[in-house]
Amino acid sequence: MTLAFAIRGDMGKGMALAYIVVQYIAAAAGSSLALYLFGEAGNLAATMPKEGLVFKSLIFEAVLTFAMVLLVLSMANGPKLNGPFVPIAVGGYIMAAGTMGGPFDGAAFNPARAFGPDFALGNFSGYWIYPVGSIVGAALAVLVARFLRGPAKASESQAAMGTPLDKSD
């Protein structure tokens, strides 16, 4: 989502980079703590494509990310989601996509989510699939959202940078 907001122009490059760095640090710290507490149980929920399905996993990650980003951008006023049922819709999508895609390739649809367990386990062999798939999916979703809704409003960009939206927007 951070990348999508940056591509769409809602968030400056510096702010987006800061968010991404913090997400990667948090993912590495969380997975390292899980490794310390529980060992390699469950492979720390690492995202790993099945043997021989690397290209299909890349496409699948792009599709999962595309749908999630398009869903959020369709319901967002900048980075702020509007409506009381939006968290249910987003959570429902994540649960459904994770349940469906988890057994196939881990269903990360977030490069930081894929990075954490790979960092803790020291195995980055299939990691590249997740950032590439996420970048492609997010960029396509931004293009489709722009086609459907037009460019982001100035107030949406201000909200992405920390200025609260006026209730009348």
Characterize the structure shown.
It contains seven helices and two strands; from the N terminus they run H-H-H-E-E-H-H-H-H. The protein has a single domain, classed as Glycerol uptake facilitator protein (Up-down Bundle), CATH 1.20.1080. A hairpin with a 2-residue loop joins strand 1 and strand 2. The protein is mainly α and 169 residues long. Helix content is 67%, strand content 2%. The two termini are 21 Å apart.
Fraction in helix: 55-70%
Structural domain count: 1
State the name of the first-level CATH class: Mainly Alpha
SSE order, one letter for each helix or strand: HHHEEHHHH
Shape: globular
The share of residues in extended strands comes to: under 5%
Cα-atom Rg, whole angstroms?
A: 17 Å
- CATH fold-level name: Glycerol uptake facilitator protein
Weakly predicted, low-confidence segments: none
Our count of helices gives 7
Give the structural class: mainly alpha
For the secondary structure, the number of strands is: 2
Tell me the name of the CATH homologous superfamily: Glycerol uptake facilitator protein
CATH hierarchy: architecture: Up-down Bundle
Main pleated-sheet profile: 2 strands, antiparallel
Can you list the strand order of the major beta sheet?
1-2
Gap between N and C termini: 21 Å
GO molecular function: water channel activity
Transmembrane segments: 16-38, 53-73, 85-104, 124-148
Keywords: Membrane, Transmembrane, Transmembrane helix, Transport
Protein name: Aquaporin
